[in-house]
Amino acid sequence: MDSNSPVAQITNDPFAAVRIPEFRNLMLGRFTFITALRMMSTLVAWWVYELTGDPFAIGLVGLSEVIPALSMALYAGHVIDKSEKRKLILKGVFSYTIAAIALLFISTSYIGSRFSNYSISIFIYALIFCTGIIRAFTGSTFSAMLASIVPRQYLQNATSWTQGSWLSASVTGHAAGGFLIWKLGITGTLIIVCSLLVVAFFLITLLKPKPPMAQNTEKKTWESVKEGLRFVFRTKEILAAFSLDMFAVLFGGAAAMVPVFAKDILKIGPQGFGWLNAAIDIGAIFSIVLLTLFPIKKAQGKKLLIAVAGFGICIICFALSKWFVLSFAALMIAGMLDGISVVVRGTVMQLKTPDHMRGRVSSVGSMFINSSNELGQFESGVAARLMGVVPSVIFGGCMTLVVVIIAWVKAPTLRKFEY
C-alpha cells in the first residue's frame, strides 16, 4: 500500500506507537524534561508575584522568554535540520540544568540578604531570557525527531501519545510545583527541578543518534530559513491551524493570571494554586486520551473551530467565578477543548511536512505557539494593569470568540478541512 495514501496514515491500534521501544524512551525523556520545566515556570510566576505584588511583573516573565525564543526560532529550525538531533537535545537539557542551578543560587538566603526584591526579580528575568534561547532549539528538536522514530502510518497515533505525554508532564509539573512551594519553599522546589533535569538528560542518552538528511547539510542558512517559511505559508492547512491557535490563546491566556486569582481573589494559597494551575492540562489530558482511543474521523476543521469557541466561553466563566470548584471546572473544560486543538494541529503538521523540513516547520510552529503562550502572558499582564485582573480575562475570552467568528467567515478552507 502507498505510504502516502490517507488509509495508510491511520492505524486502529491505539497502542501502535507505544510498542516501539525508542518511542517510549523519547516519551519518558521528554516527560521528565517537561515536568521540570513546568515546575520551574510555576515557581517563577509565583516567586515573581511574591517579590513584586504586581500582575504586570508576571507578564514580563513571558516577555523575557518570548523575545529570544521568537528571535532565534527560524535560525533554530535551520540548525535542527542540519544537525544530529539527539546531541542537540542533550545540549539543550544540559543548558537548562545550568539555568536551574543559577535560579537555585539566586533563591538562597545568601542572595536574599544582600539584594533587594527588585534586583532579584531582574536576575530572574535575565535567566528566563537565557532559557528562551535554549527553548528555541529544544522544543522543535523533540518534534522533528518523531518521524524518524515512528513509521508514517503511526504518526497520528504517535502525535496523540506525544501530546498526551507532554500534557501529563505539564499537569505533573504545575500541580507538583504548587505543592512543593507549599511544603519545601522556593529553594527546595528548585533542588527537585535540577534533579529532574539530570534524570531527563540520562534518559535522552538512551536514544539513537539522529543524523541530518543529506539535502539539508549544504544549504545556506538564509535560503534554508526561507524554504521553511515558504512551505508553511503555502500549506494552507498548517497555516490556518497555527494562526487560529495563536490568536485564540494570545487573547485567552487566563492561565497567566492564575497566581493573582489564587492569592488575591480565591485566596487558596500555593496548594490551591498548584491545582488551579494544572486544571487546563488535566482537561487536555482527558481529551487527548479519548482522542487517542477514538480519533476524530471527519469534519476536523469545523470541530476545531467549535472547540476554540468553547475555550473562550470557559475563560469568561473562570474570570467571573468566585468559587474554587467552579474556577477549576471552567479551566479543566477549557483544557479539554484545547486538547482537540492540540491534536488536530499536531497531526496536520506531522502528516503535511516532508521529513527533511521537520525542524524548520516545527520552529515556525513554535513561533506561533510562543506568540500565543508567552506573548499572551505579557498581553494578560498589560491588560491587567490597564483594566484590572478580572475585566482583562473577560476581555480575553470575548476576543477569542471574535477570532473564531472571523475564522469561520473568512477561512472556509479551515472550516471544511478534513484529514
Brief rundown of the structure:
This protein has 15 helices and no strands. By secondary structure, the protein is an all-alpha fold.
Distance between the termini: 18 Å
Radius of gyration (Å): 20 Å
Low-pLDDT stretches: 1-9
Task: Tell me which CATH architecture applies here.
Answer: Up-down Bundle
Determine the number of helices (DSSP H or I, runs of at least 4 residues): 15
The CATH homologous superfamily is called MFS general substrate transporter like domains
**What is the helix/strand order?**
HHHHHHHHHHHHHHH
Helix fraction?
Answer: over 70%
Q: Kindly state the number of beta strands.
A: 0
Number of domains: 1
CATH third-tier fold name: Growth Hormone, Chain: A
Main sheet makeup: none
CATH class: Mainly Alpha
Decide which structural class fits the backbone: mainly alpha
Name the beta content range: under 5%
Instruction: Give the rounded overall mean pLDDT.
Output: 82
Instruction: Characterize the overall form.
Output: globular
Highlighted features:
disordered N terminus, globular, about 425 residues, Growth Hormone, Chain: A, about 80% helix, 15 helices, mainly alpha
Describe the structure.
This protein is mostly helical. The protein has one domain: Growth Hormone, Chain: A. 81% of the residues lie in helices and 0% in strands. The chain contains 15 helices and no strands. It has helices at residues 21-52, 55-82, 85-106, 109-112, 117-149, 155-204, 221-234, 236-251, 258-265, 269-293, 300-320, 324-352, 358-387, 389-410, 412-415. Helix 11 runs antiparallel to helix 12. The two termini are 18 Å apart. The model is unreliable at 1-9 (pLDDT under 50).
